[in-house]
């Protein structure tokens, strides 16, 4: 484990209290488990990113020349599976959520510290299974595992990949369970529901989806395995099954899963915007309720992935209208963030730049969602690059921007070190430009009709594909930079003060990094969330600007 | 230059203009929303940047404002929904008396058979200005029939028919893509739709036919011995098939279903599932005994028996599950 070496300062904290391998892998400290997760998901992020790089390189030219068709099919499959199940879903909840939920509510740890560690073990077991699967041949079904291709036609390691995701799903369930119980039972005195940071509300909503949705994908994958291994007729029409049943079950989880990725990110961005405009969040209650309603409505829209799959016209009408309903709370959030900026006192530190980036990309991602939810347009753009662009704007533009913003915002708290501000701003800019260059051309490609999962394509699509690949290169640099300067800062960064941003929130009231049990004594909360007015009332105490 | 860098797809069907109009409307709406949000964010970010001695003004929120920006988007969304629904509904409801083409997809090719008997592979000739109905099924995995120039897409699912239709408006050759990932050569499963002027099309049609599909069906009907039970009088052990297609059928279990392509298909492959009222469950399944192409021919034949009677082709939405009257729980469950 990468513990910053050198003098840690005098104060004892969760990083220097114990040393050694065992002190990490047997830890029940939520902060250490968060770091274990951070290391593991970063590893998978770069594996998934490497697959993406190969995909983009293959698509530089219309003909299939870099890799074989089968290899390409495995690449996009494993890119999706790794990024979705091993990076995005655990990203913010398991790292930032794990670290911050107890700190923000004034608790010593999560409600079930050992279950928390178990969840990381399950993640690692699933991850090792996935790695083994990838190293011994991989899988080529697409991350969606559509039947009967996956159960009867694919010659790759479908069962192993399915079981890997099955196991990892339990880590997600356990994290969600832990958060819900913690948020209900372990809030510090005075930390009422209406004083909770919106980060906590977002994680609460996420946890609901995790514990209600994940079992469904687990069952679905078991059914796929049963059909493939034992030839039980469930999905394959040749065995008397129904292939659309699979799609219903799959998307019943996998649509809400998108909200598992984006809701925590929204929580992060809310904290950042409040801090860097020195304001309470505009319409706290509406933002909190919108998280919960996204979680609830998110379960009622799954079949909008199936408008051309052969469902009934009337079912399609219902799912289309419900999809528009779920767009309302997302829009409300965007408006509230924007309104929070009004009459603020805004600073452009790196986390805020990421938050701005999030706002821009999420807005585009969300609005293009309106196109896809429209039955008439989905008929044309479904399963084309339009969809690819749309969901990358949400899941990468939105979720990943929020994740990086959060990593920068809380990095001083997590490591006790300051990251280099100039580099961080530069990286935020590079990511934003690279992202748009990569994915915006794909909207046009999609409307022109380029289908997804094509490894060769008609030559008229080449110019836009070259633009996209060029953007991906820029984006790749943008993602490598933070990793480099974060690692650098662990050794060479300036020591962080307890509250470098002069931010509200209990996590800033303890030391950086915090002690093992977070607080010297149990905090008593007597203020609302985002009490920036009080914090800024004494300008003398303001911390020096960072960087 | 634009040959290599098109920014808008060809528009070659009646549906294309409808979809494009809606798309442009959405670009305008979302462009306005993006403009509004970006302008506000950038303006606030610049106007309210931190200045020495100036403190942020705390604002609690505003319920009227929250309601405004919930309700206005909601109504805008509903308008988009309604427009999209109309476009979709039109595209999903084949007009009566369309020319019919049976499509069988398999890894990794498209087999197309005109009702008149012409067979094609990865190529489909159609005339300008005529409604063409596609009755599609797959031999193996799920595929998807996508013609960007027609703004037409429909998954092709094994074990059932899905239906799509279009009316081409401009002669030319247009891409046919498979858009549902189907294995190794998924990106090679492409073909072309060749739209011709009626005269050229007639000329093309005059060659290569082995007789209408329904005639092929009639032959198979005889060869398989279907005629022994499905007689043309009321004395057969199976239902008389004259005039059945496109009409509701009373089932033994009290339900009533529309005799569309999917129903006929299901009766051939799984005769017990929806047995006609008043008949014994004596028909064997033909699952595995007839190819997808033969099923298509049989369906075309049964259909032709109806057309000799009163009504023409029945318009039914492209629902996968056989279109049923409101009978509950009438899901296909072979």
Order of helices and strands of chain B: HHEEEEEEEEEEHHEEHH
**Whole-number count of domains of chain B:** 3
CATH fold call of the domain at 27-351 and 503-533 in chain A: Cytochrome C Oxidase, Chain A
**Average pLDDT over all residues of chain A:** 93
Largest sheet of chain B: 5 strands, mixed
Structural account:
- The complex is a heterodimer of chains A (547) and B (334).
- Chain A is mainly α and 547 residues long.
- Chain A has a domain of 356 residues: Cytochrome c oxidase-like, subunit I domain (Cytochrome C Oxidase, Chain A).
- Chain A is built from 16 helices and no strands.
- In chain A, helix 7 packs antiparallel against helix 8 and helix 13 packs antiparallel against helix 14.
- Chain B is 32% helix and 19% strand.
- In chain B, the strands form 3 sheets. Chain B has a 5-stranded mixed beta sheet, covered by helices on one side. A 5-stranded mixed beta sheet of chain B has the order 4-10-9-6-7. A two-stranded antiparallel ribbon of chain B has the order 11-12.
- In chain B, helix 1 packs antiparallel against helix 2, helix 4 packs across helix 6 and helix 5 crosses helix 6.
- The longest helix of chain B has 34 residues.
- Chains A and B meet through helix 3, helix 5, helix 9, helix 10 and helix 11 of A and helix 1, helix 2, strand 7 and strand 9 of B.
Features:
heterodimer, A: about 550 residues, mainly alpha, Cytochrome C Oxidase, Chain A, disordered N terminus, disordered C terminus, B: about 325 residues, alpha+beta, Immunoglobulin-like, Cytochrome Bc1 Complex, Chain D, domain 2, 3 domains, five-stranded mixed sheet, about 30% helix
């Amino acid at each position: 484990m990468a513990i910053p070496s050198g003098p840690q300062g005098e104060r004892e904290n969760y990083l220097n209290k114990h040393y050694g391998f065992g002190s990490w892998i047997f830890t029940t400290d939520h902060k250490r488990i968060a770091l274990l997760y951070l290391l593991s998901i970063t590893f998978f992020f770069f594996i998934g990113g490497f697959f993406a790089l190969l995909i983009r390189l293959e698509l530089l030219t219309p003909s299939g020349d870099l890799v074989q068709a089968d290899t390409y099919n495995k690449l996009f499959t494993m890119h999706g599976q790794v990024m979705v199940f091993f990076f995005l879903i655990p990203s913010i909840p398991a790292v930032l959520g794990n670290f911050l939920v107890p700190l923000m509510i004034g608790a010593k740890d999560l409600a079930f510290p050992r279950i928390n560690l178990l969840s990381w073990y399950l993640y690692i077991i699933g991850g090792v299974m996935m790695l083994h699967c990838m190293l011994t041949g991989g899988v080529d079904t697409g991350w969606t595992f559509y039947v009967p291709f996956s159960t009867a036609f694919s010659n790759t390691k479908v069962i192993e990949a399915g079981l890997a995701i099955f196991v990892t799903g339990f880590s997600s369930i356990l994290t969600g369970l832990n958060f819900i119980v913690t948020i209900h039972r372990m809030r510090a005195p005075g930390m009422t529901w209406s004083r909770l940071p919106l980060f906590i509300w977002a994680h609460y909503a996420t946890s609901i989806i995790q514990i209600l949705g994940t079992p469904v994908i687990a069952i679905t994958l078991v059914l796929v395995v049963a059909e493939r291994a034992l030839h039980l007729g469930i999905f394959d029409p040749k065995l008397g099954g129904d292939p659309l049943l699979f799609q219903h079950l799959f998307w019943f989880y996998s649509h809400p899963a998108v909200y598992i990725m984006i809701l925590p990110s929204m929580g992060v961005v809310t904290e950042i915007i409040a801090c860097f405009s020195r304001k309470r969040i505009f319409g706290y209650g509406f933002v909190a309720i919108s998280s919960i309603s996204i979680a609830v409505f998110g379960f009622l829209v799954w079949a909008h992935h199936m408008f051309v799959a052969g469902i009934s016209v009337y079912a399609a009408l219902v799912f289309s209208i419900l999809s528009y309903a779920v767009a309302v709370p997302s829009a409300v959030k965007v408006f509230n963030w924007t309104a929070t900026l009004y009459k603020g006192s805004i600073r452009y530190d790196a986390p805020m730049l990421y938050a701005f980036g999030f706002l821009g990309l999420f807005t585009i991602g969300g609005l293009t969602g309106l196109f896809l939810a429209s039955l008439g347009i989905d008929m044309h753009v479904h399963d084309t690059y339009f969809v690819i662009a749309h969901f990358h704007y949400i899941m990468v533009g939105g979720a990943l921007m929020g994740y990086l913003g959060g990593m920068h915002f809380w990095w001083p708290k997590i490591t006790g070190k300051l990251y280099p501000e100039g580099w961080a701003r530069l990286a935020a800019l590079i990511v934003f430009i690279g992202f748009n260059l990569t994915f915006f051309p794909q909207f046009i490609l999609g409307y022109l009709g380029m289908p997804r999962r094509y490894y060769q394509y008609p030559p008229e699509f080449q110019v836009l594909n070259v633009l996209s690949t060029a953007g991906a290169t820029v984006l790749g640099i943008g993602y490598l930079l933070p990793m480099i300067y974060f690692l650098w800062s662990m050794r060479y960064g300036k020591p962080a003060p307890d509250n470098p941003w002069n931010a509200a929130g209990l996590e800033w009231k303890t030391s950086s990094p915090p002690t093992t049990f977070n607080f010297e004594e149990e905090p008593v909360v007597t203020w609302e969330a985002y009490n920036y007015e009080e914090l800024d009332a004494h300008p003398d105490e303001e911390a020096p600007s960072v960087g | 230059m634009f040959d290599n860098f098109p920014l808008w797809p060809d528009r070659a069907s009646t549906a294309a203009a409808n979809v494009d109009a809606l798309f442009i409307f959405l670009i305008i709406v979302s462009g306005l929303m993006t403009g509004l949000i970006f302008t506000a964010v950038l303006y606030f970010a610049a106007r309210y940047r931190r200045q020495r001695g100036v403190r942020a003004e705390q604002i609690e929120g505003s319920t009227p404002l929250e309601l405004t920006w919930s309700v206005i988007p909601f109504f805008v969304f509903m308008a988009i929904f309604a427009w999209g629904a109309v476009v979709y509904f039109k595209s999903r409801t084949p007009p009566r008396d369309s020319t019919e083409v049976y499509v069988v997809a398999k890894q990794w090719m498209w087999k197309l058979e005109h009702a008149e008997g012409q067979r094609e592979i990865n190529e489909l000739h159609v005339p300008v200005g005529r409604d063409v109905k596609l009755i599609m099924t797959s031999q193996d995995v799920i595929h998807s029939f996508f013609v960007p120039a027609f703004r037409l897409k429909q998954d092709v699912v094994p074990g059932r028919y899905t239906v799509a239709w279009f009316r081409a408006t401009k002669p030319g050759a247009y891409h046919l893509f498979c858009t549902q990932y189907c294995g190794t050569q998924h990106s090679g499963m492409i073909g072309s739709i060749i739209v011709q002027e009626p005269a050229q099309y007639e000329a093309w049609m005059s060659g290569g036919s082995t007789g209408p599909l329904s005639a092929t069906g009639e032959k198979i009907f005889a060869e398989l011995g279907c005629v022994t039970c499905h007689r043309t009088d009321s004395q057969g052990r199976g239902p008389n098939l004259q005039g059945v297609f496109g009409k509701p059928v009373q089932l033994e279990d009290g339900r009533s279903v529309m005799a569309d392509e999917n129903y006929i298909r299901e009766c051939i492959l799984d005769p017990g599932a929806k047995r006609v009222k008043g008949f014994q469950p004596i028909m064997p399944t033909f699952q595995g005994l007839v190819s997808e192409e033969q099923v298509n021919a049989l369906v075309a034949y049964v259909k032709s028996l109806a057309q000799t009677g009163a009504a023409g082709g029945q318009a039914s939405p492209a629902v996968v599950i056989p279109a049923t009257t409101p009978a509950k729980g009438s899901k296909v469950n072979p």
